[in-house]
Amino acid sequence: MIGGDFMQREAETCSIDTERRRRWLGLFAKARLSALEATWEALEEKPEYRFIRPPETGMVMVRARAGGVGRRFNAGEMTLSRCVVQLDDGTTGYGYTSSRHGRHAELAAIFDALLQDSDRRNRLEPILVAPLQEAEVARRAARAEKAAATRVEFFTMVRGDD
Question: What strand order describes the sheet that includes 72-87?
Answer without folding.
Answer: 49-65, 72-87, 92-97
